[in-house]
Amino acid sequence: MWGSMSEEVRADYGKDYFDTLVKFAKTQANSGEKDMTSVLHAMTEAVTKRYPRVRYHAFDCYYFFKQKAVIHLPEWLSDLLYITRPPLRQLSQQKTTAQTKLD
Q1: What superkingdom does the record give (predicted)?
Q2: How does DSSP classify residue 47?
Q3: For residue 22, which of 2, 28, 50, 92 sits 20 to 30 Å off, Cα-Cα?
Q4: Helix, strand, or coil (residue 25)
């Protein structure tokens, strides 16, 4: 993926930040719950109950409260807490360096 990015995008984010995001994505992809019992239970209940609930949460307490926090926090705060972003200082330094090279 790094090789297919434009030179401008590579300069903006840097290889270190890109590698950090790739490592984070791999960690997240392999960090899910292996036991699917709670999912199967929720699905079974949803299709067999006479009056099923509107929503079923097939995850543990930590993710339940994390989801509630994201829903009820202001968007800027939930983004700050839960979305990995490049440090602004790093971006501004890289852009200054790139601008200096152009001048």
Answers
A1: Eukaryota
A2: H
A3: 92
A4: helix
